[in-house]
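quick q for whoever's on today - can somebody do inverse folding on this one?? i tried earlier but teh output was garbage lol. tokens:
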């Protein structure tokens, strides 16, 4: 179960790849989600059964959330699953409570705790309390990075015996989609939703100071801040250097035509977009938040910079623009690291081990 199927972001990609892999192993998989859309369309191509949750929406709407709770329970009673697994925050809360009330084992995968990066704020305290309550209904909670695991323990939100770590993983790609990062002129790519916690402001401020160099940036994504980002891209220092491509289904092909990948975020769990870039053989420049440092090795497969520091990001992007052999070297090491740690096969094996552990109990 996941909150939204009308988007194909990191959590939806994770659910899709995991569901397809489980079905190919001979398991019976049903995906429940609100919204309908790209996730369901993608799953339908692999003949994975999907069920629309009509009342499950992303914003907090108490009366509609009560209807969603009843709807989720009714569908779970009908399906009678051996195991419920939840992804994303709203589905994670409602799904855990529903499964627990029906005495069905439930595992929640956190793709980034909402209290992360907000530890000392009022919303942070609220999210921490909500997760602590919901954690009592889960048999296991999977963290997609060690940083998330440590955060939950340090803040005493979740008991250690319930926590497990499974890194996100992706299927490999054909060599036709491998990048040649040493190519000139330099093409920079960013794949991120135009919404919080992505920080396109810092990214474009960094690039605005590099207008005298030869490069072009592709921004892939959409979202509520698109008009604002378009206004930032109108900066005269960026004239003719920024293309806003919208949501695309051909991201691997776009990465293959790129020279380096950049991601500026205020908060992250363990972004799949970075793994896609490493898989393609691209060097990565990213903010040092969440589990990003567990994927990108600073100075080896790319560079890590502080949150909101456009000067540091500019310096690192500039170094890669000016050195094609450095781009190639870092991209090659990034792809080697992907193959060693972040393949779909590794993720599925580790996830299934936890599913079996809980199902046996």
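ok took a stab at it. sequence:
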């Amino acid at each position: 179960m996941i909150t939204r199927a009308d988007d194909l972001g990191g959590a939806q990609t994770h659910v899709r790849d995991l569901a397809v892999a489980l079905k190919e192993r001979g398991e019976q998989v049903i995906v429940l989600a609100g919204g309908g859309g790209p996730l369901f369309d993608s799953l339908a191509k692999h003949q994975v059964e999907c069920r629309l949750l009509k009342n499950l929406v992303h914003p907090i709407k108490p009366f509609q959330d009560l209807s969603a709770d009843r709807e989720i329970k009714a569908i779970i009673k009908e399906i009678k699953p051996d195991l419920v697994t939840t992804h994303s925050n709203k589905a994670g809360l409602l799904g855990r409570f529903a499964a627990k009330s029906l005495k069905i084992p439930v595992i929640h995968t956190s793709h980034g705790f909402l209290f992360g990066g907000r530890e000392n704020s009022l919303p942070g305290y609220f999210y921490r309390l909500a997760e602590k309550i919901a954690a009592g209904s889960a048999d296991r909670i999977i963290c997609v990075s060690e940083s998330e695991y440590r955060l939950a323990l340090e803040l005493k939100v979740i008991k250690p015996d319930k926590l497990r770590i499974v890194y996100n993983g992706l299927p490999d790609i054909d060599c036709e989609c491998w990048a040649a990062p040493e190519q000139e002129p330099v093409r920079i790519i960013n794949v991120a939703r135009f919404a919080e916690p992505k920080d396109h402001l810092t990214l474009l401020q960094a690039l605005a100071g590099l207008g005298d160099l030869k490069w072009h940036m592709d921004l892939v994504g959409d979202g509520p801040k698109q008009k604002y980002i378009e206004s930032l891209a109108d900066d005269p220092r960026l004239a003719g250097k920024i293309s806003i491509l919208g949501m695309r289904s051909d991201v691997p092909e776009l990465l293959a035509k790129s020279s380096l990948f950049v991601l500026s975020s205020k908060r992250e769990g363990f972004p799949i977009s970075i793994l896609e870039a490493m898989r393609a053989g691209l060097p990565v420049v990213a903010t040092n938040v969440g589990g990003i440092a567990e994927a990108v090795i600073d100075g080896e497969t790319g560079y890590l910079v502080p949150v909101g520091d456009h000067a540091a990001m500019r310096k690192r992007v500039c170094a890669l623009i000016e050195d094609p052999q450095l781009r190639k070297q870092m991209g090659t090491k990034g792809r080697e690291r992907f193959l060693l740690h972040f393949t779909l096969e590794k993720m599925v094996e580790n996830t299934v081990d936890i599913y079996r552990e809980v199902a046996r109990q």
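fwiw The two ends are 21 Å apart (CA to CA). also The longest strand covers residues 186-191. so keep that in mind when u check it
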